[in-house]
Amino acid sequence: MFNFPSFRTLTVLLAGSSLSLAACTHTGDPAPSPSGGNTGGSGSQAAYTVAGVVLDTKGQPVAGALVRAENDVTHSQAEVHTDATGHYTMPKLEFGGWKIYAWKETTYKGQAYTLRMGMPNAADYDAFSTTAQGTVRNFRWQLSGRIPDRPISSMSPGAGYFGGAFRFGTLDSNFNSLPAGTEVTVTLTPVAGATLFDGSAPQVIQKSFTVVNASPAQYNYWLTDIPQCEYRITAQSNFNGITKALTLSADLAAPYQTALPGNYFKSSGSGSYESGLGEPQIPVIYLR
């Protein structure tokens, strides 16, 4: 089952009264078109309801996905699960200010993950009011990309993406840094037999950053929005036209190596409205 942090009581205020809603699955509801726009409604959809479909990365239905509607104005929310065809229908939501989210559960290397689903358009993440014709909100699983309603944070640089983030440090055990202006290129090579969350084949990823040692000096650099996979990490530097291989360590006290194998993103063990992957298995990877 989904293991979320504690949220406000699942209560929807309807026509001056309140209706308590337990999480439930709707299997006989009208089926909105999964390929249509995310505004407007289905002709057979009940007034002031929200309905839609949750699809995986290949466009196939996701059964059992959790869909939550939350209203910050009335401090109410409702939850349902998708049926066998990936469709859901929320109960009647007559007051404005709703936002809607969806998650699916999966496992990777024996760990359980609760993954937030994406939406077709950035505007679909905004608060909305339901209509007398009904409202459609569709979802699709994304392995990477921006989460429009989650800001990129300087306090948590890996935030705001469906993919994960690795953090690299440029200080060695003697607190010496790579020279300012050094361009570092990191290569993430999937280990043999590794797949992405959805079972598809991963690709080699290369990302770069430039070392800044001006005041204030910067010794930590994040590479963000990386799809979940088990990677072998290598790196090289270019300074004053000279390119050389860097060595890496997951601990300043440990020996440096030419490559670090077996790096992937841990499960946080719970979901939230905003969560992507975010948390690296190794907090800092040191380079020299």
UniProtKB/TrEMBL annotation:
It holds the Pfam family CarboxypepD_reg. One of its GO terms (molecular function) is carboxypeptidase activity. Residues 1-22 form the signal peptide. Keywords: Carboxypeptidase, Hydrolase, Protease, Signal. This is Carboxypeptidase regulatory-like domain-containing protein. It comes from Hymenobacter properus.
